[in-house]
Amino acid sequence: MATLQTQSNAASDVFPGGQTTFKVQFETFLNSGVPCGASGVTIGIAASGAADSGSGTPVSTTSAGVTALGTGLYEYVWTVPTATAAGSYLVVWSGTRDSDSVSVIYTQAVNVAAVAETVPLPGCYASVAQYRAWSGDQVTPASRVTIALQRATEQMDVALVAAVYRVDADGMPLDAALANVLVRATSAQAQYIIAVNDDANVKREYASTSVAGVSASRAAHMQALALPPIAPQALAILRVAGVLPAAPLVNW
What we know:
By secondary structure, the chain is an alpha+beta fold.
């Protein structure tokens, strides 16, 4: 009969298309700290069955690719297929201890993270992919867009103070139509932030600026604002959808 044991030296999160390494140390008994040789060592990776589980069996039970590093110490490098669904997976090692010919199973866990561009970060109303789809901007680096979306989300929150709508535990809108409105408005605001290139709102303290021989003057009403301005396109999206607290529709 196989004995089930757990080791915590599992790999950290990995993205689809990425690579991660698993290691297992066979011992004379759980947590003995005494290495024990093993034979017939295999590994398998499958959906964990948890609420946040992925799907399917990315790696069927196999010995191919399992490498012995020392006495009872084995390693497996997993190249995650790009089609692997995000979620948690159970890593199962099995083998027979040389010391007593007992079959043992070690379990670990790995989380395949969603591709960053396709899912909004916590506290963001839009993802990088949603921004690109709305704006058509395929040039600005994802790292720059991510920061702009974070700033834009904060500025949307200012615009929506006193607006009434249902949210989940993370403050994200529960209504699908409203979620779409915020994706578009946040994308418009992020595009504006990227174009202005003044995340810290320092340039607004000056009536005119000159960089590399290019001079620009700022309209008086845009100087030294107490709050960052909302982009005209973002404001139009919010206004038409009736999301602003001053608009007729404030209950979603």
